[in-house]
């Protein structure tokens, strides 16, 4: 004997009832897009700085057009942190003076994006 109707007194869910209350999402598509844009710009900036550090440490040919572009971009992005660290070793100086802005851009960019996503 098989039947699918509930026994008397047993709760039967109403198939036409609405889903339980779910809070309205306040995030708009614009806020998510802005957060993604900020995060992407921060990632690209940090990526260029890290790429320049690697190219410098690996003694890349600085006469190459691509290396010149990466170096110019890195110098532009890290203008505010130049010569914070003055080391005798050139590689360590480049690592610290360009690594710090990369970390700052990542932290600030991802922090702002996370804040926008929570809003």
How would you characterize this protein structure?
About 60% of the residues lie in helices and about 0% in strands. The protein has one domain. It is mainly alpha-helical. The radius of gyration is 27 Å and the shape is rod-shaped. About 20% of the residues are buried.
Q: Any descriptors?
A:
119 residues, mainly alpha, 3 helices
Element layout with pairings:
Elements: H1 29-57, H2 65-77, H3 90-118
| Mean pLDDT over the full residue set | 85
Biggest sheet, open or closed, and with what strands and sense? Answer: none
Listing every helix as H and every strand as E from the N terminus to the C terminus, the arrangement reads HHH
Strand content: under 5%
**Helix vs. strand class:** mainly alpha
Helix content: 55-70%
- Span from first to last CA? 55 Å
The total of beta strands comes to 0
When the domains are counted, the total is 1
Q: What would the principal axes of the Cα set say about the shape?
A: rod-shaped
Q: Please tell me how large the radius of gyration is.
A: 27 Å
Residue stretches low in confidence (pLDDT < 50, at least 5 long) are: none
Short description:
The chain has 119 residues and is an all-alpha fold. The protein has three helices and no strands. α1 crosses α2 and α1 packs antiparallel against α3.
């Amino acid at each position: 004997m098989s039947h699918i109707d509930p026994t008397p007194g047993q709760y039967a869910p109403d198939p036409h009832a609405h889903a339980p209350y779910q809070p309205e999402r306040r995030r708009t598509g614009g806020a998510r897009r802005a957060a993604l844009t900020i995060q992407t710009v921060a990632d690209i900036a940090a990526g260029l700085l890290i790429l320049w550090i690697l190219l410098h440490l690996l003694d890349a040919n600085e006469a190459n057009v691509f290396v010149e572009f990466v170096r110019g971009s890195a110098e532009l992005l890290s203008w505010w942190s130049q010569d914070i660290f003055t080391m005798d070793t050139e590689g360590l100086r480049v690592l610290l003076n360009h690594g710090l802005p990369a970390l700052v851009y990542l932290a600030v960019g991802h922090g702002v994006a996370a804040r926008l996503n929570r809003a």
